[in-house]
Amino acid sequence: MRPGGTALSTRPALRVGFDGRAFGSPAAGVRRYAGELVRALVALGEPVELVALGGLAADVPSGIAHVEGARHPPSNAGWTLVGLPRTAARARVDVIHSPAYTAPFWAAVPVVVTIHDISYEVHPEWYPYRRDWLRRLFYRRSATSAARVLTISAFSASEIAAAYRLDRNRIAVTPLGVDPFFADPARPAALPPSVRTPFFLHVGDLHERRNLVMLAKAVLAVRRLGGACASASLVLAGVDRGVGEQVRRVCVDEGSSDAVVLLGAVDDEQLRALYQAAAGLAYPSLYEGFGLPLVEAMAAGTAVVGAQTAVTREVVGDAALLVDPHDPSAWRDALARLVTDSALRERLRAAGRTRAAAFTWERTARLTLDVYREALRVA
Fold first, then answer.
1. Range of 188's domain?
2. Residue ranges of the chain with pLDDT lower than 70?
3. Residue 283: which of 346, 221, 214 has the closest Cα?
4. CATH number of 203's domain
């Protein structure tokens, strides 16, 4: 018994090996997912031990054990296929969790892999790399070899099942959570000097699928309405993956170079300040597995305009304006309403806060832990 009479759990500890490279991934979304998930798993207080397999010890969240990576061929594939299972064997784990697309094809213990979305499979034209076909093959084999596949929305689950011809029962949906930090009404940090209100905010890497050229044209059309809209701008917070210059050029060609601000990556303090000061989050993405900025914005009390797609509807429910992502004039009208209609803005802010409260990392962690246990049962 614990002090005070609480019975200790008699369930043996489950030892989970987590691919440690994810904590230092160049993809911000993967880093956030990995870090928030393991911290939430630890906070559950359940009999589970987490071990970071490989990666840099400095990147591993506190409270998580770390095992140095075993020798392997010097490539990502070499690590995944050789180094990771060897390290897992050395660490004596019960389950391996590969949190970002690639996973061992063979291992002595069950493997769980997280596939966030399959944009690369559905829209290969967005990834014109010479060896992209090989990456897609690797991802497919990782999914079909795993004991269980995790993904972050029902939309992605249906896409994965169809693309890889997987039994839907092998795929578990574990929606992402939002850090309570974004809902904290504490005094925000100062805005970057280049940002002036009113502005529409987009958060996420600047990638073709994010539909940012269309968004820039819509913001320029908002400015042409005049009045309170005349000085509106578009602020892009995220790493440029090749479309930033196109967006800037659209604005320069119209003589409105001040209509877009490219901030690059920002830290959470800056991001919360941007959410709180924005007229709204504009998220016209053509394809997402989830869209975490949608939930962060709602938690921060930011009005949201999103693409009228299945996954955005799944995430935001009735708490946002949804617009055809191929219709710049509809985006112009929706964005202008955020500037000029304070009652609409406040309604969306209130609805968004309520909606965002359902997305917690604790929930993500509990659903994920259930999958670990299920993977062991079916092994």
1. 180-356
2. 1-12, 130, 379
3. 214
4. 3.40.50.2000
